[in-house]
Amino acid sequence: MKFDLKNRDLVWAGIWIGLFFMLRFWVAGMFPLVPDETNYWQWSRHPDWGYYDQAPLIAWAIRMCTLALGHTETAVRLPSLLAMALASAYLVRLAHRWAGAAAAWHTALLTQGVLLFNVGSLLATPDALQAAGWAGASYHGARAMETDSRGQWVAAGFWFGFGLLSKYTMILFPVSVFLFMLLHPPFRKKLAAGGPWLAVATGMVLFSPVIYWNATHEWVSVRHVAHIGGADTPFALHPKFFLEFLGSQAGLLTPLVFLLMFSAWILACKEEGGKAWLSRYLFFTSVIIVAGFTLLSLHTRVYGNWPGAGYLAGAVLCAVYFGGSTSRFTHLPGVALGRRLWPYAVGSAYLISGLVILQAVHPVLPVPLKWDRIQSEVCGWPRLGTAVHALKARMPHPDETFLFGLHYQMASELAFYTPGRPKTVSINRWGRPNVYDFWWTDTDLKGKDGIGVTYDPTSHTRRLSAVFERVDPPERLEIPPCGRSLQGADTPVKIFYLYRCYGFKGGLQWVPPEGSDVRKIANTIIPSLPRRPPNAGFPLCANPRSTSVRENLRG
Known about the structure:
Layout (H helix, E strand, L loop, with lengths): L4 H23 L7 H10 L12 H13 L3 H27 L1 H11 L3 H8 L3 H22 L2 H17 L5 H12 L1 H4 L6 H21 L4 H9 L10 H15 L1 H16 L5 H21 L13 H14 L11 H27 L11 H6 L2 H13 L7 E5 L2 H10 L6 E3 L15 H4 L3 E6 L4 H9 E4 L3 E5 L14 E11 L44 H6 L1
Parallel strand pairs: 1-2, 1-3
Antiparallel strand pairs: 3-6, 4-6, 5-6
Helix pairs in contact: 1-4, 1-5, 2-3, 2-20, 3-4, 4-5, 4-6, 4-7, 4-16, 5-16, 7-8, 8-11, 9-15, 13-14, 14-16, 14-17, 15-16, 19-20
């Protein structure tokens, strides 16, 4: 490759992505895992073809990384770090092929600065893995439509399947491409050919183990997705949810980037010329998922990260229209203003992302504790694990005492940060069904003592008394703010209540509420789960040789 000015921009794009990967790798071990991260880490200790509320790839990836690097924060987060770097590289390739090296450089510049992408890079969630699948499928899908190459269709299908194994919302990708091809005559005839359907078939073959798992578990994942989508509640419009959703999108993208993203979608519809088809393609692979969740937010609460994959193609559009040096778009209305705003949009993205990451690593911003979501998520988990370990040692039979929370988040944090990393239990009776219902039955724990952690010293005492023969008054553990807090330094960021409970009577699993609930199934949340023999050992510690949930439960 000749190193001219244009190629220099492309090389700098690669260097920029590499630098931020190394920066995030360094930061990843500097703050504790948040509850969702420890939950996915727990999945990795119970490898399976599927899980109650999400696709399995995040668990498989974390397992591989922790086997190689140990059970550390960095190892748990490494799959996200690698996946987002790969997604960024694919977006750069897409921008370079469409609009040149300058657009590729600006794509790298934007994607490494946006808060949504930084959070996805640093936290161990399925979002980054889905982003890699979405970006890879977008690139190879565009190449396939250019060349009609069977190899490109298969590559697009592979990344579609990769994304489906990461997050179920990936199913909207082929829907987006189908609508694009259907509405654009030059590509409509390709729908009758074998390429697009070969891609879909490739992806579904990769996803087939998850389909089989759900089919043998009464479609619990489908039921869960339907529930959070509001399928079992009467239709009603909730403007509050809609406004919350819009606010979350502006916050995660940063307001100026959000404005430019919306402007780029409009410009993509107005562009004309030989390469305008690609702008329309990026429009469809961006807008459909965002529009879908926007409409859903009128009915039910939608979390800000759910449409995140749609902003990947949108970032390329923004970089091409407002950051690239090409002059072929200057005649389009709004491009000149967007280019003037571009430096401020990118700069504000880096500023906000930097402040959020700094607050997670070393809190210094004068944010009132009641509004500081970062501290409430990350502070105190190692200290809690140490306190619970010491309390367990004081129990009459420490080796026969299990650790529990009343939600999967608490149970997962206890598992990671208690010395020895024991297996833990989530008592879901009063909450919601989750993956812990697949790992434990009442038979496993009856008669055992337990150490539990909650946030409520009143109602939780009454509840625990219903499932244990005796419950001691809770011990209070105050967690001070992490680092240096300029406001509320003497106020605990949260308070845990540690319970000593004796003689578990049963009552682990979620009890469905009265009325309609799509999560209810015929008998139990895990009808096909084998029961452990009565004389089996108490499975508090994971069997290092075990490769399945069922082996662990059989002891």
